[in-house]
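Hello,

Our lab assistant flagged a job as stuck in the queue for most of the afternoon. It eventually completed. Since we weren't sure the result was trustworthy after the delay, we are filing this so someone can double-check. Below is the sequence as submitted and the structure that was eventually returned. Let us know if re-running is recommended.
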Amino acid sequence: MTKKCQHIIAGILFLMVAIFVAQQDTSKTNHPTPTKAIPIDTTLLFQKVVLPNRLVQFRQYLQQYHLRVEDNYELLLLLSNPNTRQQLHHHFQMDTSTLLRHAELADLMQIGMTELDAQILLFSQRNYQNPFTGSTIHLQILAEADAESLLQDMGGWMAAKENALLQNYCLSIEDIESWIYQAKNQKYKIFAQIL
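-- returned structure --
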């Protein structure tokens, strides 16, 4: 064999090896390894109790199903749509009311409300749940709410609960009026009018 033929054969073999290695690398990226399950106490997460870092825990729970939700705004955009909630229910057997509850919490927190404030407000309003949509309270409803009624509902709800997070919790009518004002002036209301 001549040197020219040896160089051509070596070049062809080099290309074949390069193509084989490239295919191996792309096959690894096309099939990511599943993420490890994050230990989360779902017993409490799916109950109507005030929890520290509830939305962080819920986002981690969704990530177990490979639903990449990085922050509360992405959570709100994902779960505020009733069709999306139904699809998640069918695909992953997630309770639609739990999905809606976390969307409403994320919505309330858009105006600077703490997660503790949002949970207390949401859970105190469960008696006023819309029977058609399951919706309890979000910014659109808060914008039309009466501050004194909300304060009474929240106080009554907290009095009936034994939770260490609620022991030193203080709220004034001015705080609630501020939430209502901010909800009225919120530029983007994510929940649709039909809710």
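-- support follow-up --
The delay was a queue issue, not a problem with the job. The result is valid. The longest helix spans residues 3-30. The radius of gyration is 26 Å.
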